Amino acid sequence: MEYPGNLFVVAAPSGAGKSSLVKALLELDAKLAVSISHTSRAPRGQEQHGREYWFIEPAEFRTMADRGDFFEWAEVHGNLYGTSRAGIEDRLQHGEDVVLEIDYQGALQIKQLFPYAVLIFILPPSWDELRLRLNRRGDTAPEVIAKRMNTARVEVAQARHFDFVVVNAVFDTAVFDLKTIVHAQRLKYAAQRRNRSAVFQALDLP
Ligand SMILES: Nc1nc2c(ncn2[C@@H]2O[C@H](COP(=O)(O)OP(=O)(O)O)[C@@H](O)[C@H]2O)c(=O)[nH]1
Ligand SMILES: Nc1ncnc2c1ncn2[C@@H]1O[C@H](COP(=O)(O)OP(=O)(O)O)[C@@H](O)[C@H]1O
């Protein structure tokens, strides 16, 4: 499948800083939009339906999956998550850029469907720091943290299938790395199409 918009996929083990980084990236780049996923998990803390996720019942999720409503979906930490076609197809068709914040299983499915998608894996600087961040966030029970640390080992092993790996040690440096990847992809895509105006647009030149 091919659309004129760029597709960026960001995956990371839970607690590595993916949500915070993507949020900061969106604040820097008005031309990017993040896709809101559907999930069967219950909302956490201040989360709102339609803002962090579309929260739906497992049965409804299964119906959507059977109907082919998702570009990809996967079970993560015992819950179902999916990227709906309706959420991003329109934007991509209009040449707008989209970021997917999803797990590695979803990322690999997206790469099959959209070979030009740019897959970015966020790594924490160390396992100890990952545990610290999960603890500090304060919204995850100790037994859940232990489970996520185990899953993190499986997830990190998948980083080799990604186009880029960004280490989130110093936050601002990691945001800058992401911004550079997005910028480089826009220039590459514009150059591939030999489209002078698209190159100028990507450079933010008049
Ligand atoms: N495959 C897939 N994974 C998703 C999707 N949305 C979120 N995820 C992933 O599901 C995992 C759990 O997310 P979440 O419940 O928000 O917990 P968090 O890991 O603490 O942020 C994370 O790795 C997300 O990136 C989606 O649409 N598809
Ligand atoms: N570079 C960093 N240095 C220190 N703490 C960070 C950094 N990046 C993120 N954090 C913190 O780590 C915790 C997990 O970040 P979050 O964005 O929720 O992770 P994820 O979306 O990957 O689960 C949050 O409390 C966040 O503020």
TrEMBL record:
Its EC number is 2.7.4.8. InterPro entries: GK/Ca_channel_bsu, Guanylate_kin-like_dom, Guanylate_kinase, Guanylate_kinase_CS, P-loop_NTPase. It catalyses: GMP + ATP = GDP + ADP. GO terms for molecular function: GMP kinase activity. ATP binds at residues 12-19. It is found in: Cytoplasm. PROSITE patterns: GUANYLATE_KINASE_1, GUANYLATE_KINASE_2. The keyword Protein biosynthesis does not apply. Keywords: ATP-binding, Cytoplasm, Kinase, Nucleotide-binding, Transferase. Pfam families: Guanylate_kin. Residues 5-183 form the Guanylate kinase-like domain. Coiled coil: none annotated. It comes from the Bacteria. Essential for recycling GMP and indirectly, cGMP. Belongs to the guanylate kinase family. This is Guanylate kinase. The gene is gmk.
